[in-house]
Design the sequence.
């Protein structure tokens, strides 16, 4: 199993209810929770240079959806990836939306 970092971002109008076994449910009226995992370190992350960071996997879970933090999998959500090329964010999500 890869030891890449894992991040959780939660919309200001949402909450993530986590059980002791790592299973979580998203609640609230916002866009939900985002579970991110980069496959490698950024290519460029230096002062005064635009960031380049490719293929960060994202799984967005809306209210009512679930995510297993131990297995890093979910249901009821949307999977896509984000890349930053010279400081510009690009998304594989329909409509190129980043959220």
Sequence:
């Amino acid at each position: 199993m890869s030891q890449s970092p894992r991040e959780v971002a939660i919309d200001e109008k949402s909450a993530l209810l986590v059980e002791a076994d790592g299973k979580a449910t998203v609640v609230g009226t916002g866009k939900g929770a985002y579970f991110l995992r980069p496959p490698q370190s950024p290519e460029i992350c230096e002062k005064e240079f635009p960031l380049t960071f490719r293929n960060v996997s994202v799984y967005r879970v809306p209210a009512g959806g679930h995510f297993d933090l131990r297995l890093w999998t979910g249901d009821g959500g949307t999977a896509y990836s984000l890349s930053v090329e010279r400081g510009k964010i690009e998304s594989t999500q329909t409509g190129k939306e980043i959220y």
In short: The longest strand covers residues 53-61. The mean pLDDT is 93. Residues 18 and 24 are 4 Å apart (CA to CA).
